[in-house]
Amino acid sequence: MRFPTPLLQGRLVRRYKRFLADVDLDGALITAHVPNSGSMIGVDTPGSAVWLSRSDNPKRKLAHTLELVEALDDPEAPCLVGVNTSHPNGLVAAAIAAGTIPELAGYARLRREVKYGRNSRIDILLEDEARPPAYVEVKNVHLRRPAQGDGRAAEFPDCVTARGAKHLVEMAEMVRQGARAVMVYLVQRADCAYFRVAADIDPAYAAGLRLALESGVEAVCWSCRITPQAIELERPLPIHMD
């Protein structure tokens, strides 16, 4: 995915009320939309370099959107992190269409935002006459805690997610009905060696994922290469259920 227009570089002043951030943009203080409902641990540090997209839509209340943050976890190796949670579904859909994710390749049709379960929508539904449908749920991952364990893990979630736990139950039900169900954890950063659940942050989600996997739900994880010009899937990461 290439950004349609050049991103604007600024300096984060503060992120607040979940969806707002004050940014120093060439000496001017502007307020940007933050398309991320999580806690953004490690990528909300005041003073961090950030990159914003800008919309010319006159109906928008805020013209700027926070897209990338330079994580300062390791000052000697700063890492660009994608924080816009509206991108992963499209990134994964494009990767599936291109055959990049082997576990999800070869389906005849791909549909997005399809109703299923109890008043839910699946991010991606893959269909083919020759095999059962595949229900694909995409989760954005940007959490890395250098002081946690060996410091090399991408982790999800970064806050308690009752909605995420509900999705796991519904995915397991799809398996019971004879379909495939696949969790895709998309890591919008390139400095992680593997993926694990942040069980200390949300033990209910950790237990739910373990139960879902035991029920036949599948899980894959991919990290991304991030630049101010584009975001693209780069490599698969192993999943550790410890």
UniProtKB/TrEMBL annotation:
Alphabetical list of Pfam families matching this protein: SfsA (PF03749), SfsA_N (PF17746)
Residue ranges of every copy of the SfsA N-terminal OB domain listed in the record: 13-71
Any GO molecular function: DNA binding
Gene3D superfamilies: 2.40.50.580, 3.40.1350.60
Record CDD domains: SfsA-like_bacterial
Domain Sugar fermentation stimulation protein C-terminal: 87-229
Superkingdom field: Bacteria
InterPro entries in the cross-refs: SfsA, SfsA_C, SfsA_N
Coiled coil: none
Family: Belongs to the SfsA family.
NCBIfam families: sfsA
PANTHER family according to UniProt: SUGAR FERMENTATION STIMULATION PROTEIN A
Protein name per Swiss-Prot or TrEMBL: Sugar fermentation stimulation protein homolog
